[in-house]
Write a structure and sequence with these properties.
alpha/beta, Rossmann fold, OB fold (Dihydrolipoamide Acetyltransferase, E2P), 2 domains, 5-stranded antiparallel beta sheet, 8 helices, elongated
Length: 248
């Protein structure tokens, strides 16, 4: 991607005023270029299935026939960077359970400062993803990795820095994120969280545990030890975990 070229983007919203507002915000943003605007997710899907492409998709969640979340699930690969637009925060929370690249979400009515913040997140993500791996030093490589995770805690969306996570423990249909200074009960299965965590940093070591390899202090007697915690390594996971440690 040419860093000087504006990002091509799409707007999808069945409400005309909301759609016009997003179009106006894009017009005010030099980093963006509006490719097309649709009043339904069905029309947007047709755009993609006919070979259309865009860098960023500003997508309303609540729409008739095909919702924004339904569209996200069936977008062709690779999908664009997605910024969800909604009148209800709870709908946006559900989107982060999807195994797709949702970069941010905006709550209507969308105002320019918050819109520009979302654009900067998209730009930073795309620049990090497109930088050649061999040109990066250690610090730059670390920045290119995902830096945080949005999780549902008590019906709210909470941002968690990945570096603060020691390990994740399964708890029925919930998980416990054990951090440096607190524990969070998250509404998600362990498998779903595993899909969202970067494999170069996190390892499944047990049917009930995922560990942050950057925070491990010692591994002894099939136990992973942190400062004040320890996690068992399941028998069926030992070989794969040892291989990940060697390659880490």
């Amino acid at each position: 991607m040419n860093p000087a070229a504006p990002l091509t983007c799409l707007v999808v919203d069945d409400n005309e005023m909301n759609r016009f507002n997003l179009e106006h915000l894009i017009e005010l943003t030099p980093q963006l270029h509006l490719t097309a605007s649709f009043n339904s997710a069905v029309d947007c899907l047709a755009f993609f299935t006919q070979g259309g492409r865009a860098d960023v998709l500003f997508l309303d969640i609540e729409m008739p026939e095909l919702s924004g979340l339904d569209l996200v699930r069936i977008l062709p690969v690779p999908p664009p960077d997605i910024v969800l637009v909604t009148s209800h925060r709870d709908y946006a929370v559900d989107a982060f359970d999807l195994n797709v690249g949702v970069s941010d979400y905006l709550v209507k009515p969308v105002e320019l400062p918050r819109f520009l913040q979302a654009v900067q997140r998209v730009v930073a993500h795309r620049q990090a993803a497109s930088a050649p791996a061999e040109s990066k030093g250690p610090a730059e490589t670390a920045l290119a990795d995902p830096r945080h995770l949005f999780v549902k805690v008590n019906k709210k969306l909470m941002r968690v820095n990945l570096g603060d996570i020691l390990y994740v423990e399964a708890l029925s249909d919930y998980c416990v994120l054990v951090l440096d200074k607190q524990k969070l009960i998250v509404y998600s299965t362990l498998r779903r969280l595993e899909e969202r965590l970067p494999t170069q940093q996190f390892a499944r070591v047990h049917r009930s545990y995922i560990v942050n390899m950057r925070r491990i202090e010692t591994v002894e007697d099939h136990m992973v030890q942190f400062a004040r915690h320890e996690v068992p390594v399941g028998k069926s996971y030992q070989e794969g975990f040892q291989r990940q440690l060697r390659d880490f």
